[in-house]
From TrEMBL, chains A, B:
This is Lipase. InterPro entries: Ester_Hydrolysis_Enzymes, SGNH_hydro, SGNH_hydro_sf. It comes from Scytonema millei VB511283. GO terms for molecular function: phosphatidylcholine lysophospholipase activity. Residues 5-178 form the SGNH hydrolase-type esterase domain. It comes from the Bacteria. Pfam families: Lipase_GDSL_2.
Amino acid sequence: MRICFVGDSFVNGTGDPECLGWTGRICVAAQKQGYDVTYYNLGVRRETSADIKARWLQEVSCRLSKDYDGRIVFSFGTNDTTIETDKTRIKFVESIENARQILQVAKQRFPVLMVGAPPMLDTEQNSRTVCLLKQFEQICLTIDIPYLDIFATLQKSDTWLQEVADYDGAHPRAAGYQEIANLVQNWSGWQSWLT
Amino acid sequence: MRICFVGDSFVNGTGDPECLGWTGRICVAAQKQGYDVTYYNLGVRRETSADIKARWLQEVSCRLSKDYDGRIVFSFGTNDTTIETDKTRIKFVESIENARQILQVAKQRFPVLMVGAPPMLDTEQNSRTVCLLKQFEQICLTIDIPYLDIFATLQKSDTWLQEVADYDGAHPRAAGYQEIANLVQNWSGWQSWLT
């Protein structure tokens, strides 16, 4: 199985001193269970849904094929809701349209999962992100892509909040990424790929 | 510092149950030394110099900028020398021209290092790969890119040869990738980025 993880800095694992992030951690765990996983990390810092829309298909196409059981996990959204020069980097309706287009095209080609975005320290941005994630979840429901919310659990996690506060206000360190990895590994969507 | 590692399955770390490969291992070590490294792994299985020439600039451009101290490490060559339908996948002169073009363009934009390719079990392919790597080394010398040979050392490494033999004849497991990581970490080219 060859898996492309497509998204932003949280997919890249920015801040993790072990250079795995949650994506690498769940692939290591899958390999320990005996699954032969090729791990392609396509998370890019600062990227919005518009940036991802512009590159994901080309990057995935040279890495995956149906012959080698290619699959995609998406996770993005936080950078869309960042304020720059008095407005969000991406308009709310555009973010929704970008996500819909990305997910619809992806779903026609490969099995797809979507993992939501985590909370940051900025409560106002968090409110905007939660609104956007609800729309992403609805899109996934409509086109039959399993979606995992991680925001609610992490917002109550002392480990997550403390690591984010101690680092840069956005990204955790090893333990925080392990928390996301645990959520994904206990999720039926991910588990269905490993049976 | 943000580093793109561009190449083939050996850059991807295929076969490593720890999902780090040599590229992840040297970035983990750099982080432990206190360097703030963003790790972008752009290794793709089966890719030749022609495949890499077609995608590297676009993939690197959305990940690196001069504002964030972007750097590139290339490593490829083995797939060029694989025989398919009675000839190598890429003609010898074309491999050389691809490498020259990739490295020249990269060097104009970012600091660049090149790491050679490792040996496989196939001795005839190894001979072809060694010939090609000598040319790559010459190109690097001409355009002033530090080049590290790893082939000769690994060919004498029991750990490397045993892991490759036990796995798929081409890729090692964790200990083999750690051997490459050790060679790179002890190399003045890499060390010059961490001082």
